[in-house]
């Protein structure tokens, strides 16, 4: 796949189709499909002639358009089911160099021609995460509007710390955060928030905010100014809560894991008992995390008792009138993590931490760097939001999300989410009584996560509680996954969970996926796993 | 500037110039310059016809190419000195809506035509950070290869946590980090490292690593398992060290600020005295941060006594044979923060934390999430590097940097850095004896930072030590800066520092800047400030 139309060093023909003089109404696109990475030889030596070089405009435009030819070709293939999801190679193979694709860096520059070949090869040996049959991660799909947003963001190449150099993006962030708070249900969308480099950092913020609210002196005096503080989260929750506990000086042992029911939802009575236990020991229960859409099972914890919410994976369901009841009680949380880069299909990275109390983010994090946040600017400096971040420079993550929201409307996100949940229901209905399948938990999934074992014919006669069966079954998913990757046809995740041996975790967030892709996945599992 | 060639709702003419049948060798670029955002009406309603819709290819390609027309137009103008750096508007003006540019989000989708208008307007009301006369930040410039790298990265839209879904990028990161460690001078480039979302997070890593090295039990038991730990850093250092101290549970009061000499360099004797003082109090000195290129003065601390290095701004100088002596002793550090997105002109975000001791990053941060880092994969899972991050999902920041390194070679970065330092020397020579200027510190700058006051004629007769003079001078830089932004001609930063009233901090990292742009800046300061 992805073969170049000619050897990289062939002389240029920047091929164009004649448009036939039909004026403006003929399809422009056919013209561009034909771009290849063949160049005039003269072009291949002129990195130094790109902008900002004098008269560098033409070479720059030509280079960028050749690149866009490579990228749009990749986009087309991404959605083409006849292409593979990946062309797998082991690390040592790529490190040794593949047909002129050499990863090593050197002192001397390469030609622009080679740079474009490098770009093509980088895509060729990567993974098409937008392919309709890529189900491997919570973040899948390639949204064209989101992609456009990212291209623009990198062209603008600015920084969120001050209004001064990111006026439009700063305002977009404020408006979007307000809209998200309205969907959470906080009165008039009041509160605060910020986009962070991912759900783990957003969760770190939520823990910091809770600590600052009850023990503000920790900011200046350190953890010794507080009693022993304890965090609570589901044994099924994302590992980032534990990471935050370790990083922020609580200690991972002070992150207490809550027991869950068969579906992976926190048992409220267990939370109550563990809080009591912690209190009796003289420690201070600080923070309870509820998970709205757990990573593996897609479980929604019962929120109504709980103070802080981690809904990175499930957050998008707030946009669905059909499914938002799963968030019942979310408006009682003090903070919410919501990752539009997962269920909502926004390109990576796009994660928000939303906070009910205005001003607490700044209180918690500000250090008032005079060189960045001068109070004597000519505009309203309350729009300089950088000091409430734990970062200094901050990438513009808002624009692609804002643009997608504009293009889809709230209603478009809702349709996407309802469709993904319908597809996972389709998968669930298809396999729950199918021969050779066993569900990891019973009942309709709460999210798009469908967790199941595929049991090859050779295992079906064995006693299911035997050690032999468990050992053999544990190896099935890794073997099928390895064959999937080698053949490049589809990708889906697997893992063990507690006492449960390796099972497949199927998730749907890819807007390109259809029922036929679900059928394909099941056929593929059976094709590859039948003789194990 | 940036006016659309026609009203947004005019009927389409996708204008093309006839190429005159010259085959492949005529300049392709002229064809594309002419793209406008005018469409066929039919195109303006078909968001739902973009990919992944059936037969969505053509509409998708057309949409993306229209967008590229807007972006390349912006790129061209960015380098055009006859355009403004920015078109300033106050927050309330942008919020009220500018000529059809409405930031509010709604339930219903917008047409693709409007989406493209939104894209154009987003750029129009933003700041051209790549403009040759934009000197406002440490990160300036628009590197075309870096831009290409970002466009590709967003098209690939994947995640650094596993080799499985980012094979090429994971290897590029490893090779590049090794190369950077070689430049630091660690034997054979051994050690560890990771790209993080910015210098502040990289510095947070460095503090966490130091804590883990000497008090590993803090990871599980929290800060109470260690004595009172103290961090040391220059009073001129970046505020992120203090932020890290607050966030990680040390407390900002346990971040001791070191006195500096007149040039902003840490005084080693002061470090020694303060370490002794801390020890006498029974606390534990954990971490000393040396700054290589301070934010305001560009000062290089004397490194040879010091354990951990923050060289986010100055890191690029390691690539210059002429200037790397300023890093003398850096190889003795345990960790180094190096931000290629600053001096080296890599698009935001691109920051690395480099560590001398192999395995310590993983030791410090790993939580072994089974669903992500399965040990039973078919490839060498030592390439699954995600668990050593404090993040889970991690944006691909490496590719643009790798691609720039390929295209420039080490030698190209060196030339860029030497050129920037030459330009700042040019500025220094120009103003140090010029009437109306006073340097904030004497002597040739160590980095590209040139810090100076402009003194309008009305102040020149006043007693320099008088309160009146200080008060008046303090207002000069903000006033000039405000006028600069209103007129949109150039941008440069200012700030106070300690007892010193507001002064300009000029920095050069923009590869597009020439001596004439330095001249322009000085002329502009005098034009705007003469009558103050």
TrEMBL record, chains A, B:
Keywords: Decarboxylase, Lyase, Pyridoxal phosphate. GO terms for molecular function: glutamate decarboxylase activity; pyridoxal phosphate binding. One of its GO terms (biological process) is gamma-aminobutyric acid biosynthetic process. SUPFAM superfamilies: PLP-dependent transferases. It comes from the Eukaryota. The modification N6-(pyridoxal phosphate)lysine is found at residue 342. Its cofactor is pyridoxal 5'-phosphate. GO terms for cellular component: cytoplasm; presynaptic active zone. Residues 1-10 have a biased composition (Pro residues). Residues 1-23 are annotated as: Disordered. Pfam families: Pyridoxal_deC. Belongs to the group II decarboxylase family. This is Glutamate decarboxylase 1b. The lineage of its organism: Eukaryota, Metazoa, Chordata, Craniata, Vertebrata.
């Amino acid at each position: 796949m992805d073969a170049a139309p000619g050897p990289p060093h062939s002389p240029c023909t920047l091929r164009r189709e004649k448009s036939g003089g039909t004026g403006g109404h003929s399809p422009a696109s056919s013209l561009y499909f034909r771009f290849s990475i063949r160049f005039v030889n003269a072009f291949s030596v002129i990195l130094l002639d790109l902008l900002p070089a004098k008269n560098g405009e033409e070479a720059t435009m030509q280079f960028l358009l050749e690149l866009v030819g490579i990228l749009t070709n990749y986009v087309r293939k991404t959605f083409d089911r006849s292409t593979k999801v990946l062309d797998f190679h082991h690390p040592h193979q790529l490190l040794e160099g593949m047909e002129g694709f050499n990863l090593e860096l050197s002192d001397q520059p390469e030609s622009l021609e080679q740079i474009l070949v490098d770009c093509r090869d980088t895509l060729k040996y990567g993974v098409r995460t937008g392919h309709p049959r890529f189900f491997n991660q919570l973040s899948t799909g390639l949204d064209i509007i989101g992609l456009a947003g990212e291209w623009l963001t990198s062209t603008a190449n600015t920084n969120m710390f001050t209004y001064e150099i990111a006026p439009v993006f700063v305002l977009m962030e404020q408006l979007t955060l307000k809209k998200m708070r309205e969907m959470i249900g906080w009165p008039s969308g009041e509160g605060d928030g910020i986009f962070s480099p991912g759900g783990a950092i957003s969760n770190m913020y939520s823990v910091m905010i809770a600590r600052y609210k009850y023990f503000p002196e920790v900011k200046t005096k350190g953890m010794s100014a507080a009693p022993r503080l304890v965090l609570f989260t589901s044994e099924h929750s994302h590992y980032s809560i534990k990471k935050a506990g370790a990083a922020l000086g609580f200690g991972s042992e002070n992150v207490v894991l809550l027991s869950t029911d068969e579906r992976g939802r926190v048992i409220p009575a267990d939370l109550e008992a563990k809080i009591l236990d912690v209190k009796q020991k003289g420690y201070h229960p600080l923070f309870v995390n509820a998970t709205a859409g757990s990573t593996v099972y897609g479980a929604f914890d019962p929120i109504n008792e709980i103070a802080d919410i981690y809904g990175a994976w499930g957050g998008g369901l707030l946009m669905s009138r059909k499914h938002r009841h799963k968030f019942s009680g979310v408006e009682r949380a003090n903070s919410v993590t919501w990752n539009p880069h997962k269920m909502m299909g926004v390109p990576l990275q796009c994660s928000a931490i939303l906070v009910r109390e205005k001003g607490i983010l700044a209180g918690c994090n500000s250090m008032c760097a005079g060189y960045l946040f001068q109070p004597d600017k000519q505009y309203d400096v309350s729009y300089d939001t950088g000091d409430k971040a734990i970062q200094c420079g901050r990438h513009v993550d808002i624009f692609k999300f804002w643009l997608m929201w504009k293009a889809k409307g709230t209603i478009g996100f809702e349709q996407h989410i309802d469709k993904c949940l319908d597809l996972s229901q389709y998968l669930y209905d298809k396999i729950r009584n199918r021969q050779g399948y066993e569900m990891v938990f019973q009942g309709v999934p709460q999210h798009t996560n469908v967790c199941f074992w595929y049991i090859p014919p050779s295992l079906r006669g064995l006693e299911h509680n035997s050690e032999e069966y468990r050992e053999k079954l544990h190896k099935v998913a890794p073997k099928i996954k390895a064959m999937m990757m080698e053949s490049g046809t589809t990708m889906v995740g697997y893992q063990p969970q507690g006492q449960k041996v390796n099972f497949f975790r199927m998730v749907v967030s890819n807007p390109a996926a259809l029922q036929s892709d679900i059928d394909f996945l099941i056929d593929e599992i059976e094709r590859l796993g039948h003789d194990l």
